[in-house]
Amino acid sequence: MKYAARIESLATNKAECIAIPIYDSLEMSAPAANLNQISDGQISRILKSGDLKKEAGSTVLAYNLLNTKIQRIILFNAGPKEGLTSKKFILIVKKLIVALKTLPIKSASVSLGDIKCEGRSSEWLVERTIEYFESETYEYLEMKGISKTKKTLFDQVNFLCDRKLLTAVRAGIKRGKALAQGIQLAKNLANAPGNICTPSYLARKARQLCRGNTNLSLTILEERDMKKLGMGAFLAVSQGSDEPGKLVLINYQGTKKTKRPHVLVGKGITFDTGGISLKPPASMPDMIYDMSGAASVLGTLSCIAEQELPINVIGVLAAAENMPSGKATRPGDIVKTMSGQTVEILNTDAEGRLVLCDALTYIDKFKPASVIDIATLTGAIITSLGSVASGLFSNDDQLAEQILEAGEIACDRAWRLPIWEEYQTQIASAFADMANIGGKEAGSITAACYLARFAKNYRWAHLDVAGTAFKGSGLSKGCTGRPIALLCQYLYDQI
Ligand code: BES
Ligand code: MN
Ligand code: ZN
Predict the structure, then answer these.
(1) Tag placement on the chain: N or C end, fewer CB within 10 Å?
(2) DSSP letter assigned to residue 89
(3) Angle between helices 86-101 and 122-137 (to 10 degrees)
């Protein structure tokens, strides 16, 4: 989708369709009042018909507005004039898109008029609008053989605004486009099935991203490099697969080298069969999404690099495939991690923490300002938080607060759970320094407790996105792009 900011000139506008806000008390927004005047009261007459419901997001379509060249207008109920919440604003945008998608138009014009959202800027309104225009019109068609036609016809959105708001709208467009592009990259990667999206494929996509931007550079650790570094836990996961595992490092340098980087580490299991601790058939197809964390890291870097933000960020993709085979890790095997700590692998399906722990040890050398790992780590987090909030765990209260707040602003919420010492006993092992599973209770917490043992030297947070990163099986399945909006907002706040 293309986006542009246009200064309003409703009297001369020839748009195929303009969407104009009306507040829920049926009070006109500034552009609606303007149009009402131009059209000798036609907007008032439409509102008097009662066709526009008093519910936020309702729409009514009208044609042939008097004294104008506009082909159609959509009046949309923009909720309360005062005290509009972020959530409601997004609902309104989503419903507006539903209405626009039914029309045979090539471009749509949207006036956000004088809509104000509590605690949010005009720039934010535009950024979010673009984010949802993209997510509500996204379709994954790369794998279709013949039916490749998109359902949405329009491919241009013009934001109409007055001169005062032009700078803010342009800034919002820049942010929104960069975010949408990052999310699209992540969705296309995560939706790609396991036979296409392998660790090598992830590495290729990372290379492509770096080629397109001079501030990005790439380093790849191959299995032989990882062997030299003593990454026994990572290699225990990838050894069962014919696809070689890779640790992909992407460096974004947006400011002076001496500034400590923020590090994002993504779980990149391109397919998780469970290994020898094989998953039951019904829960396996969703495991193409087990690299969603890595995809979100790539998407976030794309968004940051696109805007050339003055910050240093290192993205790490811990990419491997978890397969059963004659070479695969057996339940009970004990391996040595790069940190020197040993792990008894009691369940080969708890593989995410195994690839992440060595990545977390490796990145210590970058002296990170903060580290966030993103992982579809546990089914248990879906039981706890459903698909509403991502699970957040952290060894630093201030970092946790910053991430929660970024999630609020970006409407991509997280909720914090504890990693108290009391839970650590659950991952005790008879023979090794720890086990890779902690029993039935508090599965997401014991997974985070395991990771915390490798993240002692820096401010660290872990996002368990198993419930939020994708919608599982069925015809509406797909990667959601979460938590890219949260991560980008967190990084904006660090500048
Ligand atoms: N990738 C899964 C977690 C997952 C489950 C993600 C459902 C998305 C949807 C992870 O590798 C896994 O298998 N975790 C196990 C851990 C257990 C063996 C301790 C789980 O959650 O059952
Ligand atoms: Mn698993
Ligand atoms: Zn997994």
Answers:
(1) C
(2) H
(3) 40
pLDDT, one tens digit per residue, over 292-328 is 999 999 999 999 999 999 999 999 999 999 999 999 9
- Over residues 345-393, the pLDDT tens digits come to 999 999 999 999 999 999 999 999 999 999 999 999 999 999 999 999 9
Distance 133 CA to ligand 3 centre (A): 31
Catalytic residue, chosen from 81, 94, 279, 336, is 279
Among 373, 342, 362, CA closest to 233: 342
**CB of 300 within 8 A of CB of 372?**
no
* Contact criterion met (CB below 8 Å) for 468 and 482: yes
Q: How far is 332 from 103, CA to CA, in rounded Å?
A: 60
Q: Active-site residue 279, yes or no? A: yes
Which residue, judged by its Cα, is nearest atom 7 of ligand 1?
Answer: 379
**Residue 347 burial (C-beta neighbours within 10 Å; 0-12, 13-18, 19+):** middle
CA dist 28 and 31 (Å) reads: 8
pTM of the shown model: 0.98
Mean pLDDT of the chain: 97
Burial of residue 54 (number of CB atoms within 10 Å: 0-12, 13-18, 19+): exposed
Residue 151 C-alpha from the chain's centroid: 23
Interhelix angle for 292-306 vs 199-211, to 10°? 0
Residues with CB under 5 A from ligand 2 (ion): 272, 349, 351
| N residues, the chain | 495
The contacts of residue 10 (CB under 8 Å, 6+ apart) are: 18, 31, 34, 35, 38, 68, 70, 160
* DSSP of 276-298: TSPPPGGGSGGGGGGGHHHHHHH
Cβ partners under 8 Å of residue 261, min gap 6: 251, 312, 313, 314, 366, 368, 369
| Alpha carbons 246 and 221: distance in angstroms, whole number | 6
